[in-house]
Design brief:
The protein is mainly alpha-helical. The protein has 13 helices and two strands; from the N terminus they run H-H-H-H-H-H-H-H-H-H-E-H-H-E-H. It has a two-stranded antiparallel sheet. Pfam families: TPR_8 (PF13181).
Length: 267
């Protein structure tokens, strides 16, 4: 008798649990999904408005109007952060807005938050590289002498992380060359500028950086023209470079015929 009562009670409890699971759990899950979707949609809407405002602020020649647009963008960004504080994108946009307003220190702190763990895991390779290079720029602008080592760390990471050639990687090498130059590391600076030229032979920043460096380092005498290092592949390319003074960089690669001719003509 007692056993039958226990079995019936167990069956009743199991039935109630099944009914609860069927009726309540799906509704709760659906409600949570709808809430998350609504939050994501609202966040994207605020970020889209902020991006448009920042684009207008950058292109506006009137300083007062540009700053007003930047402040409005920050308002939209703050709304996005209140909805989804784990997203790194609002912090990156906020950094751009603060920089437009001239608040470089605050812009740097905002980028620090964007690149902090675990937010940084949400960034794509391109976004991470851009953020690292931008943070290095801000560090040099805020306090060049005290933050130069930290800037070098960011730039070396950006170069290492980025597998694709492009403007941002060229910029990273140029900034790295500037940092090494400030630290008195002439050979490392030269190599960084040369790497930038390999990616973008027309880079003015890289060429200006090489022109600032002395022809000879204190430890090694360069013995190869820069034309070979930047990879000139045709007579027209060499000819376009021959109108400028040919700087020297060390390399173990054999000289091509056009480089030898150009070097002899200039030396």
């Amino acid at each position: 008798m007692a056993t039958d009562i226990i079995i019936q009670t167990a069956i009743l409890l199991l039935t109630v649990a099944i009914v609860f699971a069927v009726q309540y759990v799906p509704k709760q899950t659906l409600t949570k999904h709808r809430t998350d979707h609504r939050t994501t949609t609202q966040t994207q809407r605020h970020l889209s408005r902020a991006t448009q405002l920042l684009r207008r602020a950058k292109s506006n020649p009137q300083k007062d109007q540009s700053q007003t647009l930047a402040k409005t963008a920050i308002t939209e960004i703050e709304k996005a952060l209140s909805l989804f504080p784990k997203d790194p994108t609002p912090y990156i946009l906020k950094s751009l807005a603060l920089d437009l307003l001239g608040h470089k220190g605050s812009a740097l702190r905002s980028l620090d938050l964007a690149l902090a763990f675990p937010r940084v895991k949400s960034l794509s390779e391109k976004e991470r590289v851009e953020a690292l290079v931008r943070r290095a720029e801000l560090k040099l602008a805020v306090n060049k002498r005290r933050r130069i080592d930290s800037a070098v760390t960011d730039l070396e990471e950006a170069v290492k992380v980025s597998d694709k050639e492009g403007e941002i990687k060229t910029k990273a090498f140029c900034l790295l060359g500037v940092c090494y130059e400030l630290k008195g590391m002439r050979e490392e600076s030269r190599k960084a500028f040369v790497e930038a030229l390999k990616l973008e032979p027309a880079s003015t920043l890289a060429r200006q950086g090489l022109e600032r460096l002395p022809w000879y380092t204190s430890t090694q005498k360069p013995s190869r023209p820069i034309i070979c290092e930047v990879g000139a592949r045709s007579f027209s390319q060499v000819r376009s470079l021959s109108s400028r003074s040919v700087d020297l960089v060390p390399t173990e690669e054999p000289l091509c015929f056009f480089c030898i001719v150009t070097a002899l003509l200039q030396w």
